[in-house]
Amino acid sequence: MAIIDITFPAKILRVLGLPESSPRRTQLKVLKKLLRKARFTEFGQQYRFDEILLSKHPGKKFQELVPTYNYNKIYKDWWHKTLEGVPDVCWPGKIKFYALSSGTSEAASKYIPVTNDLLRGNKVTMYKQLFSLRNYEDIPVKSIGKGWLTLGGSTELQWDSVGFYAGDLSGITQKKSPIWFQAFYKPGKKIAKQKDWNKKLADIVEKAPQWDIGFIAGVPAWVLMCMEMIIKRYNLNTIHDIWPNLAFYVHGGVHFEPYKQSFDKVLAKPLTYIDTYLASEGFLAYQNEQNACSMKLNIGEHIFFEFVPFDEKNFDSDGEMVDEPETLMIHEVEEGKDYALLISTSAGSWRYLIGDTVKFTNTDKCEIVITGRTKHYLSLVGEHLSVDNMNKAIQLVSEELHISIPEFTVTGVPHGNFFAHHWYLACNDNVNSEQLRYLIDEKLKELNDDYAVERKSALKDVFLDILSEEDFLTFMRIKGKMGGQHKFPRVLKGKMLQDWQTFLEQTKKPVN
Questions:
Q1: Distances in Å between the alpha carbon of 180 and those of 8, 149, 174, 177, 494?
Q2: Where is the GH3 C-terminal domain (predicted)?
C-alpha cells in the first residue's frame, strides 16, 4: 500500500494543477500566462506579445515572431541590460537574483536570471513531487519528518553594487525558503554558507552524529564522498550505523546507475532513489512514481517547452543550433526520438536553448529521460554516440563484471587517417582493462546501429585507461569545480580536453 493513504481536497489539487488537462491545452495556458505577464517589457513590445495573445494559434505565432536563443545571444541582446540595473527588460521589474552557472565544460560563469515568479513556480513543483510520495510503497513514513541534508553550493551570495545578488541556485532558494523548512534543513545556515567545499564536507562529517537524516539531496559523486568520509571518520560499517532512518536520496543532473553499486557498498538497506531535473533556469521535471525510469515534465506551472529534433539538420558538428531550427510543441513530439529543449520561463528566458537533450518515454503522460547535452556527444564520423548510450553501456558492463565505475569521460582522437574513441574510467575494483574495453565496445555496438557501422569503417579503434576516482576529483578541484552543482563532463572537447591531457601528463597517468 502507499506510504501516505490520503485523499487530498479538490481545492489543494487545483492549486497545484493536479490533475492536468491535455498537454497541448496545459502548455498553451502556461504560454499565455507568461506572455500576459511580460507583454509590457522591452522584449514583449519588440516581439509583439499582444499580437501573439490575440492570435487564434498563439503557439505557432509565438514561434513565428520570436527568435530562438542560446545563452550568448540572449545575454548579448537582452540580459546584459538587467545586470546594469535596467528594469522591465525580459520580465517585469528589476532582476534581484542571478544563479551562477558554468555547466560542465565552460569556464566563464553564466548569469541566469532568477525571479520571485520562477522561485514560486519551483516551489509549487517541489510540492507536487512531495505529494507524489503518496504513491510510493513500503517506505517508512517517519523518514519524511527527519532531517533533510542538502549537499549544495554555498548559500553565501555575492552582492553587486548595481543592486543584485549572485550565487548558486541552492543559495538563492535557501534564502527564499519558507520558515517551516528550516526545522528540517541540514547542514544548517552556518555550514551551508561555507564556500570552501573541503571545509564544508569536514564540518558536515563533524556534525553528522548530531543529526537524524531521512533525506539526502545532491550530485551522486559528492554525496558518495561525504558518506564515505563519515564512515571512515567514525569507523562504521555503513552510513545507516549513524543515520538509521535514512530512506530517500534525491538526485539529479547525471545518470545515477553508474554510481549505484558504489552506493550499495555504504548502505545497510536500500534507499528510495528519486530523480529530479532542477536546473538554474527552472524546475523542469521530476520522478513521480517509485522505481520509475523516467520523469514527468513540469508542463503546468511556469515553463513553456519546445523541442528541437537533435539531428544534423538543426545542429552542427559542434552541437551548435542553427539560426532557424525546426521546433515542435508538446503535442507534436514522438516517443523514442532525441530532442534539444527550448524553454520560456517566468524569469525572462525566451525560446532559450538550455543545452540538454531528452527523449520521451510516454507522450501521453509527458514522461522523459535526459539523454545528454547538445555539445556532449561524439559523432566524428557519423557514429552519433549519445551520453545515454555511454551510460547504458557502462551500466551493463558494470553489472556483468560486478564492478563499480562511478566516473567516466570519453573523447574523440585522430587515429592515422581515421579516428578512435578514448575512454577514461574511474574504477577501484580489480578488472582487466582489455576486457573492459572490449565489453564497452560490444555493448555500444548493440545499443547504437550507427556506432556499429562506423566501427567497421572510419572509427578504427577504442582506447581505454583506468584511473582512480580521486584522479577525477583532483582534476575538478584544480578547475575550481568543487561543490554540489558541478559534474564531470561525460565528453571532453576543446579547452577542457587540453587541460585534462595536461593534468594526466603532469601526474604521469597513461595517455595514449
A1: 20, 15, 12, 8, 46
A2: 389-493
E-strand stretches of 266-328: 272-279, 282-286, 295-297, 303-309
Q: For the segment 65-78, what is each residue's pLDDT rounded down to a tens digit?
A: 999 999 999 999 99
Which is nearest to 174 in space by CA: 148, 206, 145?
A: 148
Q: What is the pLDDT of residues 32-51, one digit of tens each?
A: 999 999 999 999 999 999 99
The single-letter code of the amino acid at 124 is V
Phi, psi of 460 (to 5 degrees): -80, -25
pLDDT tens per residue, range 111-156: 999 999 999 999 999 889 888 877 777 667 777 778 889 887 778 8
Q: Are 397 and 429 in contact (CB under 8 A)?
A: no
The answer to whether the pTM exceeds 0.85 is no
Cβ within 8 Å of residue 254, ≥6 positions away: 219, 220, 221, 487
Q: Which three cell numbers stand for residue 205?
A: 562529517
Measured from the Cβ of residue 19, the count of other Cβ atoms closer than 10 Å reads: 8
What is the separation, in whole angstroms, between the first and last Cα of the chain? 54
Q: Could you identify the residue written with the cell 487564434?
A: 56
Q: Which of 95, 116, 117 is nearest to 42 (CA)?
A: 95
Q: Are 32 and 2 in contact (CB under 8 A)?
A: no
At position 183, the amino acid (one-letter code) is A
Instruction: Give the Cα separation of 320 and 70 in Å (integer).
Output: 9
The dihedral region occupied by 210, where left means phi > 0, alpha psi between -120 and 50, and beta the remainder, is alpha
Largest CA distance in the chain: 68
User: Which residues pair with residue 277 across a beta bridge?
Assistant: 285
Structural domains of the chain ordered from first start: 10-92+301-373 (no CATH), 119-279 (no CATH), 387-506 (3.30.300)
Q: Which of 128-137, 454-463, 496-505 has the lowest mean pLDDT?
A: 128-137
Q: Phi-psi category of 402—alpha, beta or left, where left has phi over 0 and alpha has psi -120 to 50? A: left
**For residues 316 and 340, is the Cβ–Cβ distance under 8 A?**
no
Give the Cα-Cα-Cα angle 180, 186, 189 (nearest 5 degrees).
80
Count H helices and E strands in the chain, helices first: 19, 18
Helix (H, G, I), strand (E, B) or coil at 396: helix
